[in-house]
Amino acid sequence: MKIDGHPGRNFPLGVGGDAINAILAGVGHNLRLLRRWLISLLCAVVAWLAATSRSPSLSIS
């Protein structure tokens, strides 16, 4: 669990500290998933904006 949650050390002491550490590891995991999803969404929005903002080229004859 400590490797997956990426905490450096378990500073809280006792049984309550272990429970807090497990919850914080889960929260950290969910935040990393959310960040990955938001990056994907941002890339999709930027790609969509780039595709829709292309104007026809003006050629001077």
Reconstruct the topology from this structure.
Layout: H1 2-5, H2 14-52
What does this structure look like?
This protein is mostly helical and 61 residues long. It has a domain at 13-46. It has helices at 2-5, 14-52. The longest helix is centred in the middle third of the chain and has 39 residues, at 14-52. The protein starts with a helix and ends in a 9-residue tail after the last helix. The model has no long low-confidence stretch (mean pLDDT 80).
* Whole-number mean pLDDT: 80
User: How many strands?
Assistant: 0
- End-to-end separation: 68 Å
Strand content bin: under 5%
Shape summary: rod-shaped
List keywords for this structure.
61 residues, rod-shaped, 70% helix, mainly alpha, single chain, 2 helices
Short overview:
With 61 residues, this protein is mostly helical. It has helices at residues 2-5, 14-52.
